[in-house]
Amino acid sequence: MQSPVFRARGISKVYRVGDVLVTALSRVDLDLHAGELLVLLGPSGSGKSTLLNILGGLDLPSEGNVRFLDHDLSSADDPALTRFRREHVGFVFQFYNLIPSLTARENVALVTEIASRPMPPEEALDRVGLGDRLDHFPSQMSGGEQQRVAIARAVAKRPDVLLCDEPTGALDCETGKRVLEVLARANQDLGTTTAIITHNAAIAAMADRVVRMRSGAIVEEVRNSVRVPASSLEW
To answer: What's the pLDDT tens digit per position in 73-105?
Structure first.
């Protein structure tokens, strides 16, 4: 297998809450490979979001080392992490974080205006099936449509990595499947390394590899021989 784009070794994260130390991650080792679709699966509090935030340069580990290609993220300062996020990473969260006063096109353009090699907002929205909703505001869209705008915003910068934190958590089953289809298509068409964190075990079947977490540690890794289309998932 080719060299990983992400290589995390011995990653731990400890937070102080008053006089109490809370361990969110405990000596996690993880590789992510170019073009891979990875699902991080586990219950709330298992450390999934903390790990994703460290991979995305939103947080630093308390100990351990994480590298993205030639970037040492574990020792980077704030300006370096900002450049890393801007140049390499697209984020999709459970809540869409759209600006209500801007149209779909304008929400996507916020990212394309600062990206080095963006696709036009119209193309990004067309990729997620919203080419006819360019000038609609978030209040004029369903939850699933708003999430697809958020995905268009993330992929419009042509990121090397797409990190998705519970992207279907606020959606019903059928809408969630449509959103997952969009993510799988971005992974396949653009070759974007994609990590999806979820507590929904059904989503695991669409991945190349599934990493199960519990209590801040990885407890199992499974490689799927076949990726199940999102539309066929047993929710």
So the answer is: 999 999 999 999 999 999 999 888 999 999 999
Q: Is residue 1 part of a domain?
A: no
Distance in angstroms between the alpha carbons of the first and the last residue of the chain: 31
pTM for the model stands at: 0.92
What's the pLDDT score for residue 169? 87
- Look at the chain and report how many structural domains it folds into: 1
Q: Please state whether beta strands 37-41 and 193-198 pair in parallel, antiparallel, or not at all (unpaired).
A: parallel
User: Which amino acid appears at position 212 of this protein?
Assistant: R
Ranges in the chain, pLDDT < 70: 1-2
In which domain, by residue range, is 79 found?
Answer: 6-232
Integer Cα distance of 189 and 127 in angstroms: 10
Task: Return the closest-CA partner of residue 129 out of 139, 142, 110.
Answer: 142
H or E segment to which residue 175 belongs? helix 173-190
Which tokens go with 186? 């971005």
Measured between alpha carbons, how far is 110 from 4 in angstroms, rounded to an integer?
A: 30
Q: In this structure, what are the phi and psi dihedrals at residue 179, rounded to the nearest 5 degrees? A: -65, -40
Which bin fits 31, alpha (ψ -120 to 50), beta or left (φ > 0)?
beta
CATH number, domain of 160, equals: 3.40.50.300
3-state secondary structure of 178: helix
Residue 105 in tokens: 């096109």
Number of alpha carbons in the 13 Å side-chain half-sphere of residue 178? 16
